[in-house]
UniProtKB/TrEMBL annotation:
This is Phosphatidylserine decarboxylase. GO terms for molecular function: phosphatidylserine decarboxylase activity. One of its GO terms (biological process) is phospholipid biosynthetic process. InterPro entries: PS_Dcarbxylase. The keyword Lyase applies. Keywords: Decarboxylase, Lyase. It comes from Acaromyces ingoldii. Signal peptide: none annotated.
Length: 319
């Protein structure tokens, strides 16, 4: 028996069921259902266990000492998640020396076309993911994020601890990556100039909707890294947050030196094993308008499946 949640597909009324093994679902209920005081997370030892498990899993998935075991894992992973291999940059599975090297596999150039590449106002998906978008934090917390401590200052920490850069009315996009997804994340806007990174949090809670929709401060407690981007044509700063999660070994950045330039669609980083989330925060000055189908789904509490480079909205600010 399996359980899970429905995810909308763009271009019609189709939805697919994202299955979850029953034993995983039961475990998540024990950890995350109800108030924190009533769950197993009231015990500090459980939080320590999640951290230890995540770090240990990272070591295991970087282990190249048993090639046969690695190949068994890769083939089982492909079968379990029914992965298509046509888009892989490296299609010879024996060329992946570790589990993680396959997990954060690269794709062929052009495998993820960038929507309207010459339109600097367009916002595209940062990842292959299940996407939620909101015009403000009030909507996000009413419909989706139930952690009582969620606020933009708490999410962004020292990157904007007083809320000066991202005041009320700032828009959010939440890109949730499931284990089966391509696990590299890309610039959602551009051209941009990279700012400094801020490392926050220490927990390793799951980012599955089961936990996000309960009274747990997943996004404001989990280990995460925040980078501020100067969206130069729009003349606005945008915060991009990479959120670690249960069984995620690490957050890795590429082409992200302070002061470097990035284009929409270019790779920004990748997650090691596990599902995780990226969050983009846009100030009111960016005048973001989300695409209607994604916003309509989000207002119903339904995630939309999108891939890297797909258009998800645009800025209405004058260039």
């Amino acid at each position: 028996m399996k359980m899970g949640n429905y995810v909308a597909v763009r271009g019609g009324n189709e939805r697919f069921f994202e299955e979850m093994p029953l034993y995983v679902r039961v475990g998540m209920h024990l950890l995350f259902y109800g108030s924190r005081k009533a769950s197993l997370l009231r015990y500090a030892s459980v939080e320590h266990l999640l951290e230890t498990m995540s770090k240990k899993q990272g070591v295991t998935y970087d282990d190249a000492s048993n090639p046969e075991d690695v190949q068994k894992f890769i083939k089982s992973f492909i079968e379990t998640y029914e992965l298509k291999l046509d888009d892989l940059a490296e299609q010879d599975l024996t060329k992946y020396p570790t589990r993680n090297s396959f997990f954060y596999r690269k794709l062929k150039p052009g495998a993820r076309p960038i929507a309207e590449p010459n339109n600097d106002k367009v916002i595209s998906s940062a990842a292959d993911c299940r996407l939620m978008v909101f015009d403000n934090v009030e909507s996000a917390t009413k419909i989706w994020i139930k952690g009582q401590q969620f606020s933009l200052p708490n999410l962004l920490g020292g990157a904007d601890k007083n809320g000066d850069l991202f005041p009320p009315g700032s828009s959010l996009a939440l890109f949730r990556l499931a284990p089966a997804d391509y696990h590299r994340f890309h610039h959602a806007i551009g051209p941009v100039k990279m700012g400094e990174k801020t490392h926050l949090g220490k927990e390793y809670y799951t980012v599955n909707p089961e936990a996000v929709g309960e009274n747990f401060d997943v996004f404001t407690a989990n280990t995460r890294q925040v980078v501020l981007l100067d969206w130069e044509p729009v003349k606005a700063k945008v915060a991009f947050v990479a959120v670690g999660a249960m069984l995620v070994g690490s957050i890795n950045w590429t082409n992200s030196d302070v002061g470097s330039n990035g284009k929409r669609g270019e790779e920004l980083g990748y997650f090691a094993y596990g599902g995780s989330t990226c969050i983009a925060v846009f100030p009111p000055a960016a005048k973001v308008k989300w695409d209607g189908d994604i916003q309509a789904n989000s207002l119903k509490g339904i995630e939309t499946f999108v891939r890297v480079g797909e258009r998800i909205g645009e800025s209405k600010a004058a260039l």
